[in-house]
């Protein structure tokens, strides 16, 4: 896709993937914003949790079913971003670790932004464990889906000759040089 030389059919597919990824990303972020930033009418609100893993320990103390539900909700809330962010980026030939780092960093920043916005929403509580679990969910989904999906798409995009796709950093020829001009006296 970005940086991969393909025929017009390959570019059209890349544009479609990017457009679909961008649309799905926007739709998911709107849903997440509605879920996490709407005011709640509750009789009381617990204090903000700024101590890492304290909320997870408290959830585990509630019992298996309740803990699984609460922790699972936090892990799954932003998990689709693990696939949607690379899809919206549209790059097919990239470093797997670089893609993981970019995706997880973007998801962590989005999660942090949501937590900071929650400070002004009635009934919503800031929880550092939500940030950790949201980021963990994004990383897990990215590792489980994206490398295999990219490999499959690269395999489908290879020419019939079996030649490898050029990398984004491939040389585009020699750098042009400018002949020296003498300095006037």
Characterise this structure.
This protein is an all-alpha fold and 185 residues long. The protein has one domain (8-38, 48-157). Helix content is 61%, strand content 0%. It has six helices and no strands. The protein has helices at 8-37, 54-61, 64-77, 81-89, 96-117, 128-157. α4 (81-89) crosses α5 and α5 (96-117) runs antiparallel to α6 (128-157). The longest helix has 30 residues, at 8-37. It is elongated. The relative contact order is 0.17.
Structural class: mainly alpha
Beta-strand fraction estimate: under 5%
Which series of helices and strands comes N to C? HHHHHH
The counted number of beta strands is 0
Shape: elongated
How many H/I helical runs?
Answer: 6
Through-space gap between termini: 53 Å
Task: Please mark out the parts with pLDDT under 50 across 5 or more consecutive residues, or reply none.
Answer: 1-7
Kindly state the mean pLDDT as a whole number?
A: 85
Summarize the main sheet: none
Structurally, how many domains make up the residues? 1
- What percent of residues adopt helix (DSSP H or I)? 55-70%
Radius of gyration: 23 Å
